[in-house]
## 1
Amino acid sequence: MDLILLGAPGAGKGTQAKFLEERSGLMHISSGDLFRAALRQGTELGMLAKSYMDRGELVPDEVVIQMIIERISQSDCAKGVIFDGFPRTREQARALGEELQHHDRKIDYVLYLSVPDGVLLRRIAGRQTCKTCGTTYNIYYFPSKRADVCDGCNGKLYQRSDDSMETARHRLDVYFNQTRPLIQFYQEHGNLIEVDGQREISLVTELMLSSIGMNGSNGQKPH
């Protein structure tokens, strides 16, 4: 089974990708991680990608897709994968689907973590991190007991410069402008499943597992 996980900044996609991988037995494939690994290892495709980057050009979709195909052909991906970060456009989705067909695979489900814009903004713009221990808080949803002070180590809490409300709003605008056509593409193909990302983290995981036909206890398909 091959899945795509979609979610705006602040939707909890990174957290859910980790839990979904653990519970389903599917391999989480992040295009960003895959790209960095190929460059670090100096693979043939990695060096090809680097040649475009060195010229200040975007790496062509076909190169990225071949990296993905090469990765999912490995034994640890035999049960299936969770795609994260790719595709980003309708064109990439179409090209990925065609390439997967050549390898007798297809995108079975696209899980879309749906969270209202207002909640996403507060999740992003409300984040604070402890400078000492790295614990994260949110001034709207789970604030520290004392303002700007970590409950655990009394370290100072800070907010990243790219987590301002203005920046958060811009990030969301960019995401939805880019991703809305992709969501429509998979809706048209009938394999998009919208999951309420406002629920408790564990419940969201259970909803995702249930929606792809896996039970919540061990990630196996019911008999």
## 2
Amino acid sequence: MSLFDLTGKVAVVTGSSRGIGRAIVERLAEHGAKVVVSSRKMPACEEVAAGLNARHGAGRALAIPANISSKEELQRLADQTAAAFGPIDVLVCNAASNPYYGPLGGIADDQFRKILDNNILSNHWLINMVAPAMRTRKEGAIVIVSSIGGLKGNSIIGAYNISKAADFSLARNLAVEFGADNVRVNCIAPGLIKTDFARALWENPATLKASNARTPLGRIGEPDEIAGAAVFLASRAGAYMTGQTIVIDGGQTIT
């Protein structure tokens, strides 16, 4: 049996109707998992789920929309998943927000709160809705999609970077709390990836040129180049890894 086999596992991926989240949910399904596609809008979720069911067989994917800023909607996501597919084995907290570009001195309080709430607090909420059942079963994998921004300073996306640094610490602390019950919590830290979420960065020629110049591979990443790490962390291949961060950035943080 492959170390990466996820047959029989149930996986929930937030923000999975496009970008990195979509790539992750597609690869988890490809490796055998039953997957829940979740983002704010039902039609976008249904489109991805329909494609997965067409490729892998009916009943392999389910669309459950949820706005991560709503604790009630996240609870509904957890409850409906369990009702439809059974206990959740894999949770990928991928959805995030960044409503502000500019120096920290110019950010409005409501913008800062939205970043912190959606990028940290929502992960805390959903994890604590899902983790108790994992701990009871003595098995589970939780993955938070963070960013290399959490490892660096930046004059344009500082608030976002602060939230992503907090996600590293969230994973470490939960790994300590959950470890005795064989529930693993890890982060993935992508560099600049060609997604709609990061469009403001890679569509700017000057920003893209500067990013590529300090990246050993000389280019930005594609969403599917992040998905393999999620499969690793979700599967038996990653069974002894917890509290860690996998950096996938084309080498940018080494220069």
## 3
Amino acid sequence: MKVMAQMAMCFNLDKCLGCHTCSVACKNVWTNREGAEYMWWNNVETKPGIGYPREWENQQKYQGGFVARNGKPQLRSGRRLWELLNIFYNPNMPTMSEYYGPHPFTFTYEDLHTDKPQSQQPIGRPKSLVTGEENIPITWAANWEDNAAGTYRTGQQDVNFAGITQAEKDALLSYDRVFYFYLPRICNHCLNPACVAACPSGAAYKREEDGVVLIDQERCRGWRFCVSSCPYKKPYYNWRTGKMEKCILCYPRIEAGMPPACFHACVGRIRFMGVLLYDQDRVVETATAPDADLVRAYRELILDPFDPAIIEAARAAGIREDWLDAARRSPTYFMFKKWQISMPLHPEFRTLPSLFYVPPESPMITLLDNKGLWKSSGEWLPKLGDFRVPLRYLANLLAAGNEGEVSKALSRLLAMRQYKRSLEVDGKADVDVLAQVGLSQEEAQAMFRLLALAFNNERFVVPTSVNEAAVEPYIERGFAGFPNMRRRKVFHREPQRTYPY
């Protein structure tokens, strides 16, 4: 067993406002420059929908992530020979129109601020940020589907409706029955990153000290296989510098013990960050588990930071005491491992993402009975059958189709709500509802505290870092610099080399 530490994140979809404050904070800090106009390291999508870039979840189209073959995870896009044969033309590469149609654009605001007399009311015409051409047709953008705009059309291509009949899909996408929720996304900083495995020049790497996945700007040659191989489409090509860029998890901030900018700016307080301990020797085994067992296998991969044997193994691996203390206070550990109320985004991509999501719930009251009281079949709280968001949809999104994992998470959240209501309204604790879902009163109180009342130091448990270290996967460089994943060695890099400019 080799114990490793990973900075992990958790987003509570039940509280996301869709305000894009996180996206604006990230854009202002990192991608507000030429060549990065179309980059949204943090973006907020509306589900159902096909997202940004268009249809990023459809791996039949983009061939991203891994598949399990012969007990090992192998890139869906193909082996190294295939990459070499297509190194100057990648058929799985998303085009610029998949991000912005046809180009990233702004508007001619200068026409609105001029004092020159004009014969008609001035307007701001769309203008390409790449070519400078004006009056370009706008067909797609990062927030094209905001608040379910156009969902009745784009939702038809949403792969998360798999297993739902066309008639049911049409009903769910109709105006009177449509559901939607917000899905904020950043780079998942996976335990088994496909971008690192696919990079021909070995520029993408995963830091050993905290698990942050970065791209070395000096090694990068702009081959862009990280774009097509990442199933979440979070690496971007800077057309000005010719280099690849991606979310760096604001590592200069987390090295100082602060959360990333998008976490700090979140208005809805939906974001959590903490340390997870995992067994690196079992990553391959976990990544090749059957689809229905992926979430369970991932939870088993995460180690118990309260176990004395795990603590000793972590110390032997060089993990510092402040990191072990942070792992014991980590909100992501409790939400994903202990309480099991969060799940990874599309675990079937087999990259083992370090970002987990608490599934969205339904409103407290759903129906009006014949007495004029707002109630549902679950009396005051909805039952799973009353949810507007179909369990099958959430299962396809967060549990590789396993509805049992989603039902367990939502049942525990509903039980916690019923327990708190019994305390506040009835004045008597309803412990039976907790026993039905395997929770204690202490766990329910801790869940409520973390999800509803937690301060910043409870939501963001970020230990300070020291010198950057990375798992060196390319000690023996083969043809074209392909990494040899058979050997690993710890070495040191200068952190400033990974800045995206």
## 4
Amino acid sequence: MEKKVIFAFLFTLIFPALILILSGDLLWPAGWIFCIWFVLLCFSTILYLYRKNPALLAERYQKPGAGTQKG
């Protein structure tokens, strides 16, 4: 489970980096504000679920259609 949480943190950093790189302006203030907000929101949600409800976090990491879901 810890490896999945670390991967989620690293994966969360890819999206804001792409936004700033593709904008062509690394000094874009609105982009930095959004990226910081996005990372803080994602990290806080992952940490909260990891501490308070790890079963839900484990369920969120399953592939779609895994478990008891029907196609």
